[in-house]
Records
---
Amino acid sequence: MPKTYFLTTPIYYINDRPHIGHAYTTIVADVIARFQRLTGAEVFFATGTDENSQKSVDAAQKAGATDIQQYIDGMAAQWEATWRELDLTFSDFIRTTHSRHLTAVREFFRRVEAKGDIYEGEYVGLYCTGCEAFYRTSDLNEAGECPLHRRKPEMIREKNYFFRLTKYRDALLAYIEAHPEFIQPTSRRNEIINYITNHLEDVSISRQSQKWGIPVPGDESQVLYVWFDALINYISVIGFGTDDAQFKKFWPAQVQLVGKDIIKFHCALWPAMLMAADIAIPERVFAHGFFTIDGQKMSKSLGNVVDPVTTAQKYTKDALRYFLLREITFGEDGDFSLQKLETRYNDELGNALGNLVSRVVVMQHKFSAGVIPVCGVPAPDFEATWTHYRDAMERFDFTAALSTIWDHVHAANRMITEEKPWELAKAGDERLGTVLYLLADTLMHVAYMLLPIMPETAAKMLEQLGCGAPGATWGEDIDRAHIASGQRVGESHILFPKIGE
Ligand code: MSP
């Protein structure tokens, strides 16, 4: 039985089109999913849309749509189409207005209620519809506004159902203590521990004033609080309440990716909900940072919202993937800029990698009749490199994984400069074959390691090196593999045509 690997992205609100920040999380998830598949795991990669929010209603109204569901269907289709255009290999796309999600939510609610963890109470509080969350006065800025949305929260007073979150305080702390890998990066652990220790309160999980959403089972006059409903997507997508076998096969998730803005929901409320429903807790929640655009917050009013699809069309999907992983340390805040993307595209992809591939392939044609020569020395193995690379990828340290790969790109470039194969050819030196072999061998390993990160580029490299189409997995002996002497190389094609000149 292959090991299973279940990973999730947040489900996105559909009041807006996907921007580069949303694409970031989803692209990283795709890199992880592809990596795990190549190692032989059976992967389930879930993403989707969060539709039962007041934001959906507001957006539909703003767009002049009379039928909210129809509006939502159109927006959800746009989100799914965006991920497809970026070639993201998600296994399923969950929508919280799907009936299978509704079934899962009802079953989940029933379990938690049976535990005695849901009670009726009155809620009075300041609510920000932008965040879909209640605020304490101390959380607001000096103007009394939500610091994120810069608008005054509404005072809400109503009958609500509450989830006994505080009952799980000790259990949550004990779980986090016993599972150091649960909250990542580890720098976020203290923030969560502090929150659970000092600020945890029972949460209201229903809304009386809202109409759009999943009705509270047993009290149709209220709808479920969007977060209580939305978090359940992570299990409804694999069949909780509808496909028991699949649910058992994939749960608990190996990793749930989230932005740092929503880590509390995922590391306190969600695990407590799961404890209440007697369901296992995911292995890891990884919170990445937020990025600005050219140093500024991304916002419609500033007009600096970056569209992932047009960016990928201009620079290629692979270059966008490369840039996001290379420029922004996963787990930390960063800055996105098209200018930096263009520089890295030209320097690191065009010059360092693209030119290298083209020179190596052209030289095999020119000096070796288009055939990989025989190596005159024992070819160095790549086992240590693969160990480094795999270890980095498992830890989501993409910076380290890329630097391991680029060490070989630079070494190969140096080898060409130092060995000057054209001079060896002129002198009839038999070392020529060895040099050409070692270069091609290095590039083959570089290409294999790039498969999850830049799948199109890696496939083109393998084709040009004559290695054929990449397999579904790397195979067990990839670390010790060497390119075959006598293998015919393919035609040379430019991988990254110059941009901006
Ligand atoms: N619907 C909730 C999540 C529910 S999950 C059960 C939500 N949706 S969202 O549409 O606002 O998307 C949030 C996610 O988008 C963030 O957690 C983060 O992963 C990503 N990002 C949005 N803007 C971003 C940046 N500027 N930078 C990096 N990631 C960003 O919250």
---
Amino acid sequence: MSDVLRDFDLIVIGGGSGGLAGAFRAAEHGARVALLEPHLLGGTCVNVGCVPKKAMWLAADVAGRLRMARDLGFDVGEAPALDWPTFIAHRQRYIANIHDSYRRRLDAAGIVVAPMRARFIDARTVECMDGVRLSAGNILIATGGHPLRPPLPGAELGGVSDDFFQWTAAPERVAIVGGGYIAVELAGLLQALGSHVDLLVRGRLLDGFDGELVDQLAEDYRHAGVHLQLGYHLSAVERDGEGVRLRDTGGALSERYDRLLFATGRRANTASLDLEAAGVLVDADGYVQVDVRHSTNVEGIHAVGDVTADPALTPVAIAAARRLMDRLYGGASALLDQRDIPTVVFSHPPIGQVGLTEAQARERHGDQVHVYRAGFRPMLHALANSPQRSLFKLICIGDERHVVGIHLMGEAADEILQGFAVALKRGISLEDLRDTIAIHPTSAEEVVLMR
Ligand code: FAD
């Protein structure tokens, strides 16, 4: 135990998306801030999430385009393979630049950074691993989450998304267990980079996304060669030489895979925090309980990001942290508006959605719901005779056709959605979209041409 006690206005526990955003915003308002982060700055998103994932997605996208280029007459030879070490060097250089930029900004903002894990001593005090104690009027918990393996025999033989980012080559055969966006993203990019991928899903694929778009994506995946098995119930993993085999609950043993990845859920990082010492409550799923102000049950202790039950997205963690600091130190009162959060699955092709799905709209608005669809082959795919299709959907309600949901599956959906998300949030009708002159020839024009 140490008698060193340093006093701050704000202690931020965790230097990921939410923690960094909160620390920077509080410092801008003049608060004296300490930030504790035992690992790499940037947390999940920068190191084992959005950023390296998008880099791999881009590599896979290039691979797909090279294949199409060959079909279109370019002299690019047979399916050019990716040299992973070369690409990973580029990826990690990009990430190292982000780390450097954070370090410079933290220094410039006068934020005290301790490269250490922290735990609560009481509601005002945290202790760093070296025994130094820090106290503050406000403490922000932004410790994120970690991937889980299912509690099954042999599960330790499989990896999780964190492990995927250590890979230095595409496995020849890989099984991915899970049906959420991480499973779908990893399956798509590995297939495009040359692996034979089996995607094994217990329930629905991409629960929470529009069913019709998901069905179209499943078809696009099958065309691309992903072997998609729905209703698969894993019971055990067995070693086979350097690889594994999977046993389902019916006893059937799979073929041999070189690698196995679990994308079967995540858990909030609270175990190391000693939350009981401060009296902070967690919910039944292990998330730190917060109110609409992102404050916990203990005065002066707040939480944002994946450690709470908020949607696990980087921009949500950042926005929550900034709003919180604006209220604590900037005299503002605005809360985070969690309605109509746009989100993208970086599948091949991507899915983007904002607002209600058709199913949610029908549940709330019954036969007031009107659905408009555009199914088409994007021009490049039509030219290259590739079967990949796009499907765009608008969900509208009432006679005025108020737009409550926009769902895009296809080339560039990730880039197209952002602007339409602004429009949806401001409130638009189908007529407003139709009144907008199309940009031709694009995929995006389909959104304003739907009849
Ligand atoms: P994190 O970024 O996880 O940061 C938490 C930090 O707290 C970590 O650095 C950790 O080391 C630190 N910490 C933990 N315990 C302690 C302690 N006791 N003391 C001090 N520090 C501690 N989101 C998107 O918006 N778009 C995407 O495309 C996307 N893709 C993703 C892909 C994958 C594979 C994964 C796993 C996630 C993805 N996400 C994506 C989600 C996104 O990464 C998270 O929502 C975001 O990182 C959450 O930020 P956070 O600040 O809550 O936590």
